[in-house]
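Problem: given the chain below (191 residues), write out its structure.
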Amino acid sequence: MMTIEEHNERGAKSKKMLLWFGMVSMFMMFAGLTSAYVVSASRRDWLKDFKLPEAFIISTAVIVVSSITFHLAKMATRKGDRNGASLWLLITLALGIGFVAAQFYGFRQIIAMDLFFTGPKSTVTTSFVYIVTIAHLAHLFAGIIVLLVVIYNHFKQKYNKSQTLGLELGAMFWHFLDVLWVYLFLFFYFY
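Solution.
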């Protein structure tokens, strides 16, 4: 007969495994998009001198810092520091919103360079950047919803030193989104 602790541990492992499967499938989608980008780069109408806007550099720094603050929230929860965890979770949320704002400002910078995503003045290069970035933002919106659920559960005192599963799952997904964006940013920056 299984104890309650064993049952909870199995459930936690199952949830983490399902999240890993989801994250791997999301990464495969972005691997396919970046592969299509590489193949399309051989087109004659490809922009050879396209540079990412500065706002994308700022957004990359913001999302990396947000991963750090989410980790600090998790550590504070494990130490029983509810006020610290509250502060770090709210900072993570603000940084997530800041990342989105910086991404949209980056789109404005691309348009200011007289490069468009659709229409007669569009280019294949900028259309790819737009599609990949919007796809990442869609996943980030899901991450913000997850973060809001984690914050809600935190304020409902569902997490403590011994019960952090929801917080851990939320942090895993957030860190994945961070690593994914860093990969995409470096890909676009160096390719």
